[in-house]
Each structure stands twice: as structure tokens, then as C-alpha cells.
Design goal:
about 500 residues, mainly alpha, 2 domains, 3-stranded antiparallel sheet, 13 helices, about 10% strand
Length: about 500
Amino acid sequence: MSLAASISIAAQSLANINLGFAIISQNVANASTPGYQAEQQTEVTLDAGGVGMGVTSGPTQIASSPALQAQLYQQNAEASAADTTSSALQNLQPVLGTVGQGNDLGSLLTNLQSSFSTLLNDPGSQTQQVAVVNAAQSVAQQVNAMSAAYGQARQAAQDGLASNVTALNTALARVGTLNNQIVALTVQGASSADLQNQRNQALTTISSLVSARFVAQSNGAMAIFTTGGAQLPTDGSAMLSVATASAGAAAYYPGGGLPGILLGSADITANLTGGTIGANLTLRDQTLPTYQGEIDEFAESLATRFSAQGLTLFSDPSGNVPAGSGAPAQSGYIGFASVMTVNPTVAATPADVRDGTQDVAGTANGASAYTVNPNGLAGFTVMIDRVLNYTFSADVQDGVTQPAPNVSGLGAAGTLNAPFAAPATLGDFANDVTAAQSTDSSSASTAATDATGVQTALSSTLNGQTGVDVDSQLSRMVQLQNAYGANGKIISTIENMFQTLLSDIVPLSG
């Protein structure tokens, strides 16, 4: 092999070594970057007629574990969805209170029942009459507060979808830009490792927003599909959108004033599951309107059972008790819980809690007949007995069961179901509502903790396989330093040989 060839080989080796130092620097600098995959130098052996001519650098590659990476992306979606759900439901807990702790709906209803029992001992006491009204107002205020909390959480989910879709569009556009750059470099046979790492960051963002599959293409691009089968565009040909809307108690999706998520003009809401988007859709369209349906049903049952006995204690601000029949089942009282109050007539005349507010004709399948305190007696107890014996019990009169509240077909669209059987008494109903929703919150919190734990474990495993090991990078650097010194020595030696050779050449004379 000639000296010139040796110098060429050594020089090429130095160029490879310099690239190796650059890769090490890049890796070490990103050792703490979440999701960063270590870049790896590749080399191609050169030869001329079967004679080795050193090596040249091939395209830099990133360490990868496709199967494990796919698992982590899916777990990102699950963890993000669980965390979104848990946060939303945890925010409701201060309003719900805790069963049996005095701050929950059941406890406040028990206080109202107790206030009637106390009034029974002295029905003419104005102080005790006012105490009943105040206890009733506390129940109404708790119902109002729960309804308001559900409405606020539901609106937050609707508003969250708008920001989620914006973030998804941004990440998809970023993937599209990087796809184009990676494809161009792939065609040239050049390295795209840095761009692939940047794209992985965008894919991680997408996986936290919606459950998706990422499919590598032969040209280096990455195609993105939802687990529901819809392909998400990265070329800017269409964008996702969701209209702003008011998520009131009467609103629902689809067809009830709440928007779907569109891809161009196509509604792909059903294809978007998992991640923050999937969680917000479930909260908006299932979980929170079910809670609203439950509290509306409780409010209507509460007002109706009192009114049936001859005391319209609870009503809307105009003094009306909503009708309890229709199609869907709650069509006559959607959102009643948000406006229910103590009947203004009773609030102005607390003695009504003793006397009643209207006569009852009485029916075989309903309440028995009743006449409002006919003689204005201060010691009148018939209404109080009716409330204690029937309003708060499972029977509307002796031997006749109270009409069962609706626990299915709830909501404005009539498609929602409570997770408990129809309760017999108002007390059972109040406790069932609070307990079921508290259980949901506890389960969501546990699910979020578990999902995050799995996510952390997968991330750690993947990082162990594809992330930056600083120790190995430093070891590699030492190897390159030694190789640099050896190749530098070769060049220096050959240079000395050339100088010796040239000094021994005798100039030709004319």
C-alpha cells in the first residue's frame, strides 16, 4: 500500500472520529431529555480491488425498540386519560362531601327530617318552623352547589377539547414538517437521527392527547392512525376542529348543541379515544351529564314527594314543581337541580310547614286525601305526621309504595344510566348519589396512580435500552481519543517518511 493511500485512510479515520465526538456530545447533552434516544455512529468499510481502504461514516442511527416504544405510546394515552378524569372528579369532592360527615346531601336531608321531628313536639313554635325552612334551604343549596359543580366541570371538559385539538394540530403539523425533512435526507442517504428524535417528541405529545398508532413508512415518514381507525393528516391537507359551545344541562352530543370533533368536514369523534381528548369527551358526554341526571332526578323526587303530601316545600323560583313524566323521562325537569329552592310562599310564611300549602284529593295509588289546617290550629300535626311517615319513607301512604325514581334513560337525550338501582327512600337516594360519585372519584384516582406507575416503568425500561448511558458514552470517547492519537501518529510518521524521501532525491542537472 502506498504512503498516499495510508495518509488517505488515516485522514478518513480522523473524520470518522470527529463525527463520533460530535455524536457523543449530542448524546451527553440530551441525556436528561425525556424520550431522547441515543444516536449511534455507523461505519462502512472501503476497499479497492479487495484491498482494505479504511472506513467511511454511514448515516447516524438512533437506538430503537419499536415494540416497547409502541407500548409506551399506548400507556401515555391511558395515563393521560386517567389523570384528566381523576383531576376532574377530585375537584368535585369538596362539594359532594362525605357520607355521614354532616357535609353531604344525605346528612343535610337527615337534618331536615330531624327538624320536622322537633317541630312535631311544638308545632306552633315559630322558631322551629323557621328552623325547618332553614334546614330545607340547606338541602336546596347543596343540590344547587352539586349541579353547579357538574356544570362547571362539564364546561371545563368542553373548553379543554378546544385546547386539546389545537395542541394535536400543532403536533401533527410538526410531524409533517419533520417527515418531509427526513424523507429528503433518506433519499440522499444522509443521516436524519436528530430529526427522528425531534419527531419522537411530537409523537409523545400526540400519544398523550389521543390513543394512536404510529406506522413507519419505507421512505422514512411516519403515518398516524387513531385506534378507532381514522388516519390523522400530517400534510396540512385538513385540520381537526371543534366548535365552542355552552355545555348546559340540556345540551348533549350528538344533535343536542354540543359539537363533535371534525377532520375537515367529517365528524371523527367516535374515532378519538384515550388520552386527554378521549377523557374530556367521556366527561362531557357521559360521566358529568349522568351526575347531572342523578341530581335532577333527586331534586324532582324530593319536590314531588313533599308536594304529594300537600306541602310544596321545594319548587322552582316561581313556586312550581316540575312535571315528572315525559319522553325522555327527564324532559320536564332537565336542570331543575340548578334552580330548585324553598318555595317562596313557604319561605315567606314558615307556618306552612305545619299547615301545608294545598289540599290533596287522594288516590288509591298515590297519597291519601289531605286538607290544609282547616281551623288554623297552632297544635296542628297532621302535615308533620304525613311528612315524617310518608315523604321520607318508602310508602306514599300505608301499603302503597312511592313511585320509583328514574335511574335509567337519564339526561336530555335519555341515554344515560345511574350505576345504582332505584332507591326506595329520599335518604337512600341522597346517599346513593354521593357514594356512587365518590366511588367514581376514588376509582379514577387509583386508576391514575396505577397507569402512571406502568408508564414510568415502561419509560424506564425503554430508556435503559435506547436512552443515553453517560458512562458508555465516556468510555466510547476514550476509545476515540486513543484512535485519534494512533491515526495522528500514522500521519506524522508518514509525513516524516515523505520528508526523508524527498531530502534523499538528488536534483537533476541540466
